[in-house]
Design a protein that fits this description.
By secondary structure, the protein is mainly alpha-helical. Helix content is about 85%, strand content about 0%. It has four helices and no strands. Helix 1 packs antiparallel against helix 2.
């Protein structure tokens, strides 16, 4: 039974990693996207070399904004989002491990009172963030 639970937990963990890896790859590629936008902006600027300096300045600024946007999206938005999803996946795995341990203890006829409710609360609070208030309801 423990092996079946381990396989289920592992499958759940791998399924949660799919969007995390996709977002991580996207975050890694965003700066390259910014460079491509900058190159396209420079090519556009080179096609307008005969324009006055004020127009060239705007075109160069637009190319630099593309670079900045790629870096900003990659490092300040998408990468932290992927990290947060990874943290949530780890939290969910801890919760499933707690449930597995409780079920296996019950199946192996360990006395249910061998772990006091205050010990259980302490263990759950260390394993799962406080934002999951429904766990406190289940424990009480």
């Amino acid at each position: 039974m423990e092996n079946i639970m381990d396989v289920d937990i592992d499958t759940h963990h791998r399924e949660q990693e799919i969007p995390i890896h996709a977002l991580t790859r996207t975050a890694d590629g965003m700066p390259a996207f910014g460079i491509v936008v900058a190159v396209m902006g420079v090519v556009n600027t080179m096609g307008s070399v005969d324009k006055p300096p004020s127009v060239l300045g705007e075109l160069i600024a637009a190319a630099l904004v593309g670079t900045f946007l790629g870096i900003l999206l990659g490092y300040a938005i998408v990468s932290p989002l992927a990290a947060r999803l990874e943290d949530r996946a780890a939290e969910a795995s801890k919760m499933f491990e707690c449930i597995k341990v409780a079920l296996l203890a019950t199946m192996n006829a360990y006395p249910p009172r061998s772990l006091s409710s205050s010990d259980a609360r302490c263990f759950i609070r260390r394993s799962v963030p406080v934002s999951r208030s429904w766990i406190h309801i289940c424990v009480d």
